[in-house]
Amino acid sequence: MKKLVLALLGTALLIAAAVAYTVSSRHDPADAEPAAPLTLSPGQLLFRDTATGRVGAVPLAEPGKKPQLSGLKCDRFAVAEQTAVCLAVQPGTLPAVTDVLVLDDHLAVRHTETLPGTPSRARVSPDGKRVYWTLFVTGDSYAETGFSTRAGLYEVDTGRLVKTIEELPVFAGDKRYFAADVNYWGITFAPDGNRFYATLGSKGKTYLVEADYRRYRGKTLRENVECPSLSPDATRIAFKKKVGEGVWRLSVLDLKTMKETALADQRSVDDQALWQDDHTVLYGLDNAVWAVPADGSGAPRKLVDGAASPAVTG
Amino acid sequence: MYIAASRTSDLAAGTDRKPALKRVSANVVALGVVSLVTDVSSEMVTAVLPLYLVLGLGLNPLQFGLLDGLYAGATAVVRVLGGHLADRWRRLKAVAGFGYGLSAVCKLGLIAAGSSVAAIGVVLAADRTGKGVRTAPRDALISLSSTPDTLGRSFGVHRALDTVGAFLGPLVAMAVLALSLGSYPSVFFTSFCVAAIAVLLLALFVRDHPGSVDRAAVSARAAFGLLKRSDFRRVTIWAALLGLVTVGDSFVYLVLQRRWEIAATFFPLLPLGTAGVYLVLAVPLGRLADRVGRWPVFLGGHVALCLALVLLCGPQAGIWLAVVALGLHGVFYAATDGVLMAAAGPLIPRDLRATGMAVVQTGQAVARMLSSVLFGLAWTLWDLRPAVLVAAVCLAAVALAAALAKPVRP
């Protein structure tokens, strides 16, 4: 009898503690700051404020300035021309479900797609006509910790949705590449809105794939390239190169000469790089946004603390 | 006073019709409830951990998978050590309690670790150590709290209760996420509170089996000596051999997903299907094992898995075939997981029960790890379906050999 009372009392106390903790975490003091009306006017560096999850902005010329925070919460964010894309995981969904929000130049939602998975990468094509993303799709607790990626895109002007580019016919040399475990991640479009690049992962290897969107076919260009990002002049690709298990180094590949240049940051960078212009590459690392020269010279420079997923308006 | 103690008189009176839960010792039910509550706690964390690492901390999941796999092997050693110390000190409950307690504290450790990848790695390793330490003493307690002829049923009841917890965990995690507006620390804290409740229940309601201490009988030499007992050695070896040709869960679900093009949204429902069948059949198959023999039921489970694999690779791809294959996968679990412990229990002296169980479990676990490496290799070389087919043929061959060898006397 005494044991039963003890058990009930202890259980009640512990449940009360859990509920109190859970309810008290609803109030986030950082959320108190009022939302600033951000637009996609030129010369800004936008990013995800990691403390609040809100999209913030600073002038690109003065990144040290106090950022303005919008009311929009995103896990990945990207812009080009008059279009922005925000990937936001829906709270309380297991397994995760992500909202892909297509936004206009005042960050108002124009279109929403809801897809299974956890946000990983997001981009807008240079012409602002397509948004594309990569999501991690997970099994659940009973399976091993296995992940696969799913890369898809949405045509802003026609409303066409490609949930995954897994069906893209890919050629390695003259031969069509077939494998059951094909994964794609990190798409990047050329300024013409047709040519695009992506990572193809299969059988423990990764390939750079160059593809034609209208003809919908691709070919492998090179091994060991992940998360490609095409320069504004469309001549070079910044990417993360695997140098060890779980260790990546930012590099730039010249598409004409196929020559690789390692960038100055010696640390492991796990992000899809972003070209600020033809000379500088931006990326998120250790809870901050960094910039490094694209020719391998110089040193990494911290732009904004407490920030991830950089985007620049031009 | 254990309910099982009055069982013999029930039998004598010819009243062999009580519900299964009442026909097992109160200690087994108490251990089952502790496992249920603990599983709610641990499955809550497992459900949100990938999300937390990717979104909260910006880790690459592939990187995390690497981290995770690193520690899987460590538990094998810890398991034998935990079993041995429990026997040595004659403190089965205390050692199991330490394991449960350690895993509970690790939930707070996840909050304390913050965004440090190294600290998270350490916490996850400690959590797995806790799980490794507690398993053998707990199964020894279940075994020692049952009469030899109801072992299968006892393990069935325990595993069924355990599975209920696994079902509830993700639901509780979802409720906490919804209530806290997506706060992962809230999930970890609640998980800690739930785990602490389990430790409290263990302390209050589970009885130890002190027995007479014969230290000489529990020396390290005696533990190794276990493998000199031919019947125990044969069960250990056959269990490991079967483990070596067993295709891991994630691969089974992967084939199901590939062949039936199951949408990613429904993918997590596949393990729930297996768990559901396991839950329903754990007790009936445990009772069957008590009646017709534990080894035949254990092998029968492997036959079920073999049939499931054949269905998965077969020429037909109807949806009902997928359902049947998933059902057979559940039968495999219900007929093997607790039943092996029930089969091994009587072959181990009472003084060495936890050690012996740890040895059998570790042999099986190491073999399964090796199997998933080999299977992954075969998949890369030959593609998924041929690999599964080869695995099914190997499984059938080893199961047939094990049936002919009859390592356990009926």
UniProtKB/TrEMBL annotation, chain A:
User: What range does the record give for the signal peptide?
Assistant: 1-20
- The name under which this protein is listed is TolB
Q: SUPFAM superfamilies per the record? A: Tricorn protease N-terminal domain
For the keyword Signal, the answer is yes
- Keyword entries, A-Z: Signal
Biological source species: Amycolatopsis mongoliensis
InterPro entries referenced in this protein's UniProt entry, alphabetically = 6-blade_b-propeller_TolB-like, WD40
Aminoacyl-tRNA synthetase is among the record's keywords: no
Pfam families linked to this entry: PD40
Superkingdom of origin organism: Bacteria
**Transmembrane segments in this chain: where?**
none
From TrEMBL, chain B:
Classification via InterPro entries: MFS, MFS_dom, MFS_trans_sf
Where does the Major facilitator superfamily (MFS) profile domain lie? 27-409
One cellular component term from this protein's GO annotations in UniProt = plasma membrane
Lipid bilayer topology? Multi-pass membrane protein
Q: Where are the transmembrane segments?
A: 20-38, 69-86, 98-126, 160-181, 187-206, 235-256, 262-283, 295-312, 318-344, 365-382, 388-405
Sorted alphabetically, which keywords does the UniProt record give?
Membrane, Transmembrane, Transmembrane helix
User: Which PROSITE patterns does the UniProt entry name for this protein?
Assistant: MFS
Q: Name one Pfam family in it.
A: MFS_1
CDD domains in the record: MFS_MJ1317_like
Task: Please provide, alphabetically and separated by semicolons, the GO molecular function terms listed in this UniProt record.
Answer: transmembrane transporter activity
Subcellular location(s) of the protein: Cell membrane
**Has UniProt tagged this entry with the keyword DNA-binding?**
no
Q: What PANTHER family would the database entry show?
A: C-METHYLTRANSFERASE (PTHR23518), MAJOR FACILITATOR SUPERFAMILY TRANSPORTER (PTHR23518:SF2)
Its protein name is MFS transporter
**Provenance organism:** Amycolatopsis mongoliensis
